[in-house]
Amino acid sequence: MDLKNGSVVTEFILLGFSAQWELQIFFFVAFSLIYSATVFGNILIMVTVTFSSTLHSPMYFLLGNLSFLDMCLSSVTTPKIITDLLIAHKTISLWGCMAQIFFMHLFGGAEMPLLVAMAFDRYVAICKPLHYKSIMSNKLLNGFVIISWIIGFIHTMSQMVLTVNLPFCDNNVMDNVFCDLPIVIKLACTETYTLELFVIADSGLLSFICFIILLISYIVILVTVRRRSSGALAKALSTLSAHITVVTLYFGPCIFIYAWPFNSFSGDKYLSAFYTAITPLLNPIIYTLRNKKMQGAMRQLWFRNLSCKQNF
Predict the structure, then answer these.
(1) For strand 173-174 and strand 91-93, is the pairing parallel, antiparallel, or unpaired?
(2) Series of mean pLDDT values for 10-residue runs along the chain (312 residues)
(3) CA distance 206 to 275
(4) What is d(CA 112, CA 66) in angstroms, rounded to the nearest whole number?
(5) Which candidate, 45, 107, 57, 94, places its Cα nearest to that of 289?
(6) Contact (CB, 8 A) for 110 and 66
(7) What is the pLDDT of residues 130-146, one digit of tens each?
(8) How much is the pLDDT for 4?
(9) Would you say the C-alpha torsion 221, 150, 163, 13 has a positive or negative sign?
(10) Who has the most CB within 10 Å: 25, 100, 158, 264?
(11) Which helix (H) or strand (E) holds 307?
(12) What was the pLDDT predicted at 144?
């Protein structure tokens, strides 16, 4: 990005949450704790899934990949939010802003189809249990992960190719805590109506379509279980409740931000912060506090580690 395309802006100013110092300190402590818990929790899940023999199954393989994406997604924006809370003049370079947008949409775009793959895994496990091992093969699982990354890369590149060429002339103030595509586009000193429609069609529709597919898959699972046995419905609801919670809290803010991205309101920055900082924490919380098998595997690894240290 240079003067050849009309840009004279070299950095953007972020307004952040609040000008009150007391609130800045509160947010600093809160986001520091949230980010620390996110990194620790997701690393714990990845390590447990990798080294625990009881968790070498398709569901936990996909969960480990989801934890990696969650940790990466949070790391794109949250450390910058935390450091900015300690300074009065919050800025980000133009290329730093573009990098933030690129990686946020890369990891976010890859996570959506991975959640769909997890829903498919639950569908096969509940509705076709006798064929589960043959259907959910290692080849299919690796294919799910590769396709998720490909979709994420295509998703972010299709938008970045158009965004990096936008000219930014004088307005460089963002009423947000990090760079995001709808806000950056509105700062460009050129007509961006077509690009705005493209963002809605790309980010908004990707979120909405994945959300609808997930809802349909859960409804099919519950209807199938109910037809087989009314008593099994409660067990299926218990199994799916964690997935439904993650999906609802993940896609809710995402759809709101990107399906109607250019009709902003004062709460946009809080929704954005929730989506990138707090949502990645839901995965370790829900899948560890509610999953007895995961808890047992963590305890087993902990005692094994203590035993190795004592023997050493």
Answers:
(1) unpaired
(2) 56 81 87 93 90 86 92 92 87 91 92 91 86 91 95 92 85 86 85 79 80 87 77 69 77 73 59 82 76 79 68 58
(3) 16
(4) 10
(5) 45
(6) no
(7) 889 899 999 999 999 99
(8) 44
(9) positive
(10) 100
(11) helix 292-311
(12) 95
105 Cβ neighbours under 8 A, 6+ residues apart: 152, 155, 156, 159, 160, 181, 203
Provide the residue range defining the domain that includes 87.
Answer: 3-311
- DSSP classification of residue 6: T
Note the pLDDT of residue 312: 56
Alpha carbon of 247 to those of 116, 183, 210, 272: distances in Å? 10, 25, 10, 16
Q: What is the largest CA-CA distance in the chain?
A: 69
Report the domain count for the chain.
1
User: Which residues of the chain form beta strands (DSSP E)?
Assistant: 11-14, 91-93, 173-174
pLDDT number for residue 29 = 93
The CATH number of residue 159's host domain is: 1.20.1070.10
d(CA 25, CA 201) in angstroms, rounded, equals 38
CA 104/CA 156 separation, integer angstroms: 8
**pLDDT tens sequence across 62-88:** 999 999 999 999 999 999 999 988 888
Closest CA to 159 of 113, 194, 209: 194
Q: Please report how many Cα atoms fall inside a 13 Å half-sphere around the Cα of residue 268, on the Cβ side.
A: 21
